Amino acid sequence: MEQNKNTEWTNYNKHTHIIGRVVSVIMLIMLIGAPFLMGHYLGAYPDLRATMNGFFAVGIVWVVSSVAEFLIYTPMLGSGGGYLAFITGNLINMKIPCAVNARDMVDAKTGTPENEIISTISIATSSLVTILVLALGVLLMVPLQPILQNPALQPAFDNVVPALFGAMAYKYYRKNMHIAIFPLIIMSALFIFVPALMGSTSFMIIPSGAIAIGVAYVFHKKKIAADKGGNQ
Amino acid sequence: MTILNQLNSGPMYLICGTIVAFVAVICVIFLIRAYKAGKAIGMDTTKMKRTIISSATFSLLPSVGILLGVIALSGSLGTPLPWLRLSVIGALHYETQIAQAAAEQTGMTTLSASEMTASSFATIALLMSICIMWGMVLSVFLNKKYTNKLSKSGNSSSAGFGDTAMTAMFIGLVSTYIGRYFGGFISENGLFTFNGDVTPIIVIVVSAAAMAIFIRLSQKKSLAWVDSFSIAGSMIAGMAAAAIFGLL
């Protein structure tokens, strides 16, 4: 019985990588091909020299950012969740908090099959909701536009990310204040004293995460030492 | 026919809609496979159903925020391309920035429909794709190796720290943004001028307070279901506070 489950799980994982790779490659072809197809319809193809110049001017930064995102977020997302999240995007403002919240809600442990399943379900659901909302929004663009762009509602929609992170902060800080206090103070001080860093907020996640992991590791070691001491 | 009419025409919707539909199918396939695999390995289906409900409610408000991004970009790029970009691979904060930079590379002074030509539109669309596709490229080549390596190290003696490290990384992410909002209020318009935007800080406080109430409620046995809606509910409270503060 247990062996059957293991075989089933190994097969699932193997096929996840095959499907993930195939659909990612198809998506890449579609994404690169679409501008040429649109250009063909509009009667003018992309200017490749301008594209190259633009890539070297602004794109390189995003390559570095993508490498960092891949290394940091893949362990949180798992393999299936990873493929899906990098296809559907909106990682920081939606997919990562969504997957972390789901994982926490069902108490799934990192690296376990349960975590892999929950993360994939969570990201697939989240992506489908976004696709549905955007499709409905585009379909109902004319009647919706005056409501969504009502000046009274603008501050609300300008603050979706703070609203998300405020809720998540309470949820995670309350049990881990001893860890959170360090990156929170250091990041606040950095942004206060070097306001220019505000333009690189997504890059600042890397040192902030490293600080948090470093502090967590110190506490983890201390706890192990204390547990050993208590057992002796 | 103006350029904006062309950008909003049927064939453009067809090209973008086909890609969006393809991504929707991918999501459904991954969702069904994961659900079935979870059942096969003996996972509690209630947990998986809770994950679907909480992820759906969680994503609703940020999705409306993303829709506003589509509306914002549709004035200069038409509706189909922003719809595609923000449904697939894109990110709200990224698209406007790249579109603006791409427009400058094509000789436009700013991203606007009045300066848009067919060639500059196609160039902007290609540059937007090339700039953001690298996470997907890395996934194709490295996801398998990386996740296999992680699951092997997860079975080693350091496994106990894996969960704490992930939680810590997430705390680092949240702390970066909260620090940025403090920095914005205190020093955005000059060191210690305290005249930056205070709204994000108010929103954070209100949505955190709402979350505290939701957590307290969900700890009561009869109200455990509240947990699935706690993030969405807290976000509504925070965003409502922003709207009210904006009216003052």
By helix and strand content of chain A, what is the structural category?
A: mainly alpha
Helix amount of chain A: over 70%
With helices defined by DSSP (H or I, 4 residues minimum), what is the helix count of chain A? 8
Separate helix tally of chain B: 10
The value of Rg of chain A in angstroms is 22 Å
The total strand number of chain A stands at 0
Mean pLDDT of chain A: 89
Q: Given the C-alpha coordinates, what overall shape of chain B results?
A: globular
- Helix and strand run of chain A: HHHHHHHH
- Mean pLDDT across the residues of chain B is 88
Number of domains of chain A: 3
* Beta-strand content bin of chain B: under 5%
Sheet with the most strands, sense and barrel status of chain B: none
Overall geometric form of chain A: globular
Approximately how much beta-strand content do the residues of chain A carry? under 5%
Give the termini distance of chain B in whole angstroms. Answer: 44 Å
Question: Helix/strand-derived class of chain B?
Answer: mainly alpha
Structure, briefly:
Chain A is an all-alpha fold. Chain A has helices at 2-42, 48-88, 91-105, 113-139, 141-148, 154-158, 160-193, 201-231.
Any descriptors?
heterodimer, A: 232 residues, mainly alpha, 3 domains, 8 helices, 87% helix, globular, B: 248 residues, 10 helices, 78% helix
Protein architecture, described:
The complex is a heterodimer of chains A (232) and B (248). Chain A is mainly α. Chain A folds into 3 domains: 1-46; 64-150, no CATH class; 159-225. Chain A contains 8 helices and no strands. Chain A is globular, with a radius of gyration of 22 Å. The mean pLDDT of chain A is 89. By secondary structure, chain B is mainly α. Chain B folds into 2 domains: 3-138, no CATH class; 161-247, no CATH class. Chain B has helices spanning 3-7, 10-40, 45-77, 80-87, 92-105, 118-132, 134-154, 159-187, 199-218, 230-247. Chain B is globular. Chain B starts with a helix and ends with a helix.
